[in-house]
TrEMBL record:
SUPFAM superfamilies to which the protein is assigned, alphabetical: FAD/NAD(P)-binding domain
Species annotation: Lasiosphaeris hirsuta
A GO term, aspect molecular function: monooxygenase activity
The keyword Flavoprotein is assigned to this record: yes
Protein name, as recorded: FAD-binding domain-containing protein
């Protein structure tokens, strides 16, 4: 197979789908991206934390300088309990910079999608189609055909599902596997994720004692808050433990938001600002479920999943979007190798999942533990949060323990530019070196 007669259909135009558009463009592979919303760039959603792994990918794509202009570096995190008592700073982001030469950065979803979209040439932007909600997928041994609700039909040689936790592509993979009488192990659960927490996010004008660049957390029984402060607006994410975990999809109304604020409105975001004060001055707000889990099968035939469609983390560690971006890099590397070497796409998909699966299982578990600790799920988690995690040596040990694995995440092999992130204590692995190192974890 050669890349000249291959075309990829990407379903989903969020940060992960747009990263796929960039990566495929760099690899010289044709594609069409289908986004169900009316615009690729929308002003909605909470903020994202981009970790060194994600920043390295943006650097490879030539976007780091532009991205830095719309994002803020993260350093020390101040931590409070529900009564506003200081429970010790967290310096995880500081140690990330020491190890990898760059600090994690916080950015609005709007700005990261805008940077990814506007940096594409006009000829490439024309392949990104909004208002394209997929209604069905049909496959053959050599092609995938996607039909949208507006009647348009799009055919390619493979399909990448970057369409989030409630992925339509994933449900179509399951239906096709069932129709083919596939072995039970090859059929994904209809509801693969478990929801233990719900979240409310609030964007509000930066005010009072909140200073641009601040990062604060509020911890306590059943509810934790992360606050990121920007020049003009600040964003909080509040994570509330449900009475019981559920696999059902939950939706929330404005009344649910009001009830949420009534329960937790007095919690502090800083010495002077409470949740209620932030909500009353809000620019935007919303509630969502925080699904968790890893889908057992990431591909079926010529269809493959990336990002939240394949694995869903709680936001506490900021790892979800970053892992989706790394998925894209690992997947495109395998696709290019398959096309160059004459191998089949299904083998490339299997190798991609093999390379990424354990990393996301571990990442999902780590995010869940972080949320359980911050919400004091039980007495052990409370003790760890108040008496163990405040210790600077423990924080450094945890970051250092993951440093070599972070430095071994894959890079786009079709981009030959030199390493942009330097100055850290732990050198980044490159190309085949990265693949070899990753196999050790």
């Amino acid at each position: 197979m050669s890349s000249s007669n291959q075309k990829v259909i990407i379903v989903g135009g969020g940060p992960v789908g747009l990263t796929a558009a960039h990566a495929l463009s760099r690899a010289g592979i044709d594609f069409t991206l289908l986004e169900s919303r009316p615009s690729i760039v929308i002003d909605a959603g909470s903020n994202l934390v981009i970790l060194p792994t994600g920043l390295r990918i943006l650097g490879q794509l030539g976007l780091l300088e532009t991205f830095n202009a719309v994002s803020s570096p993260l350093g020390r995190i101040r931590r409070f309990d529900h009564e506003g008592n200081d429970i010790g700073d967290a310096n995880f982001f500081v140690h990330h910079k020491e190890n990898h030469g760059i600090a994690p950065r916080v950015v609005s979803r709007h700005d990261v999608t805008r940077v990814l979209y506007e940096s594409l040439p006009a000829t490439i932007q024309s392949r990104l189609l909004a208002n394209k909600r997929v209604s069905s997928v049909a496959t053959t041994a050599s092609s995938v055909t996607v039909t949208c609700t507006d009647g348009s039909v799009h055919t390619g040689s493979m399909l990448i599902g970057a369409d989030g936790a409630h992925s339509f592509v994933r449900s179509q993979m399951r239906d096709l596997a069932l129709a083919a009488d596939a072995p039970a192990a090859a059929i994904n659960p209809a509801q693969p994720f478990l929801t233990t927490y719900r979240a409310m996010w609030i964007r509000f004008p930066t005010q009072a004692d909140l200073a641009p660049g601040d990062a604060n957390e509020t911890h306590g029984r059943d509810c934790a808050i992360q606050t990121f402060v920007g020049e003009e607006t600040s964003v909080i994410g509040m994570y509330e433990r449900l009475p019981a975990p559920t696999q059902d999809r939950l939706r929330y109304s404005a009344a649910d938001e009001e009830d949420f604020v009534a329960r937790w409105g007095d919690l502090p975001l800083s010495d002077e600002v409470t949740v209620r004060r932030a909500y009353e001055s809000r620019v935007q707000a919303g509630m969502v479920s925080l699904e968790e889990g890893v889908v057992p099968n990431w591909s079926w035939g010529r269809m493959v999943l990336v990002g939240d469609a394949a694995h869903k983390f709680t936001p506490s560690t900021g790892a979800g979007c970053n892992n989706g971006m790394v998925d894209v890099v690992a997947l495109v590397n395998e696709i290019v190798r398959a096309l160059d070497g004459g191998d089949d796409v299904e083998t490339a998909f299997a190798e991609y999942q093999k390379a990424r699966f354990q990393a996301v299982v571990d990442g999902c578990a780590g995010a869940g533990r972080a949320t359980a600790t911050a919400t004091w799920m039980n007495g052990i988690f409370k003790f760890v949060d108040l008496h163990v995690m405040k210790r600077k040596a423990v924080q450094k040990m945890l970051v250092d323990r993951a440093a070599h694995e972070i430095a071994s995440t894959p890079v786009l092999e079709c981009v030959e530019d030199g390493e942009l992130l330097t100055g850290g204590k732990v050198p980044w692995a490159q190309g085949a070196q990265s693949r070899t190192a990753l196999a050790a974890y």
